Amino acid sequence: MSPIRLVFLVFVLSACSGHQNANDFDLARLKGAVEQLFAAPTKGNHIEKKWWPSAIKELNPESIMKNEKGIYIRLDSFFVEASGLFVPFPGIAIELGVYSDPSYKLLGEGIYSYYVTG
Question: Does pTM top 0.85 for this prediction?
Answer without folding.
Answer: no
